């Protein structure tokens, strides 16, 4: 017999959903058959699979060691998601990946942390999520950090994994929101879906933008080339890639003849939205190889070593929350300092107005 005690991060879901995570290599037909035959029980009783789990519930599987290992991908034993953890086991290949990411990826800083949330400042050059097998990303770094702080978390990873809730391009720096608990993840995802979190970016774009504006358009995605375009009309030749209405607001901070430092509020959040939207109105980001001006980028690379767009997720503001999960973030503004290269170019390109240099 194998058993698992349900903790807070497993509670609130149906038993069958939990079983798919606990026994990821087992099919639905097998799981329901085992429930009918009482080879899987909930609190010592027969279950149908639609029951909602609560903290402290005990799920038991009456399998041979070989069967359990086959469908779970791990050796059998008593699992628990409460504070009473079993002895630390040898790390799995996945755990080693988390540990490797935590050791190898440099320059990541923690802006805010509590029992439900982890807010990170990602440097340019680091993936938020894996793009290919073997990649190390901020997602693995986050779990590696939490494992280093609390090795007992290992035993929860089979059925719940802390995760990031928003994504930045590899060469965009700044704030990434993470949920450490199920409740924290649900809160952040709900806030993002409802646009309750206000997200601001700093960018240096080409040309002079003198006035604040709120612009909109239709973003059309080209998945084959990982590129988007922006149109005033909701037209698309490829019906599989439906246009998305996007909204972007910006305010100039410093303006010269050649460059503008903007603060941008991302009202909708689509892939490459800021980069493509500003390029579509004739003001591409400095250093942007995909949507920018080759001549400008070449000059900036020669003079400053710039190899990526100057785009930084600088600030988020959370809604007012009276109580419950999320109240720790109620009305809070979290700020990520700009990277050193961004600040250097901001000073040299924008503050030296009398030279009027690129």
Overall strand count: 16
How many DSSP helices?
9
Number of domains: 3
Please tell me the CATH architecture of the largest domain by its name. 2-Layer Sandwich
Shape: elongated
Give the CATH superfamily of the largest domain. Pseudouridine synthase
Largest sheet: 11 strands, mixed
> How much strand content do the residues show?
25-35%
Distance between the termini: 71 Å
- CATH fold-level name of the largest domain: Pseudouridine synthase
Low-confidence stretches: 82-90
Order of helices and strands: EHHEEEHEHEEHEEHEEEEEHHEEH
Rg is 24 Å
CATH class of the largest domain: Alpha Beta
SSE class:
alpha+beta
Can you give the helix content as a percent range?
Answer: 25-40%
What's the short story on this structure?
The chain is of the alpha+beta class and about 350 residues long.
């Amino acid at each position: 017999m194998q058993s698992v005690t349900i903790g807070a991060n497993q509670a609130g879901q149906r038993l069958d959903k939990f079983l798919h995570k606990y026994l990821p290599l087992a099919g639905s037909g097998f799981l329901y058959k085992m429930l009918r035959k009482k080879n899987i029980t909930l609190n010592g009783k027969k279950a149908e699979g639609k029951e909602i789990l609560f903290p402290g519930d005990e799920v038991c599987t009456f399998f041979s060691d070989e069967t359990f290992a086959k469908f779970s991908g791990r050796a059998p034993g008593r699992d628990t998601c409460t504070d009473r953890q079993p002895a630390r086991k040898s790390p799995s290949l996945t755990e080693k990946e988390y540990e490797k990411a935590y050791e190898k990826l440099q320059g990541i800083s923690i802006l805010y942390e509590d029992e439900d949330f982890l807010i990170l400042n990602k440097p340019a050059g680091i993936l938020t999520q894996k793009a290919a097998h073997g990649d190390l990303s901020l997602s693995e770094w986050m779990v590696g950090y939490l494992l280093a702080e609390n090795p007992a978390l290992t035993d929860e990873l089979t059925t719940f994994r802390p995760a990031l809730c928003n994504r930045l391009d590899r060469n965009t720096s700044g704030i990434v929101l993470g949920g450490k608990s199920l409740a924290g993840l649900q809160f952040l995802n709900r806030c993002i879906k409802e646009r309750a979190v206000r997200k601001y970016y700093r960018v240096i774009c080409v040309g002079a933008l003198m006035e604040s504006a709120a612009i909109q358009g239709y973003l059309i995605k080209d998945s084959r080339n990982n590129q988007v375009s922006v149109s005033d009309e909701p037209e698309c030749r490829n019906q599989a890639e439906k246009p998305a209405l996007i909204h972007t607001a910006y305010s100039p901070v410093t303006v010269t003849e050649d460059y503008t430092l903007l603060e941008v509020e991302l009202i909708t959040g689509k892939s490459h939205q800021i980069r493509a939207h500003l390029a579509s109105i004739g003001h591409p980001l400095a250093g942007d190889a995909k949507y920018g001006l080759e001549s400008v980028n070449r000059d900036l690379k020669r003079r400053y070593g710039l190899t990526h767009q100057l785009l930084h997720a600088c600030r988020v503001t959370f809604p007012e929350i009276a109580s419950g999960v999320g109240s720790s973030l109620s009305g809070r503004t979290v700020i990520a300092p700009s990277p050193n290269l961004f600040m250097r170019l901001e000073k040299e390109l924008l503050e030296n107005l009398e030279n009027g240099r690129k």
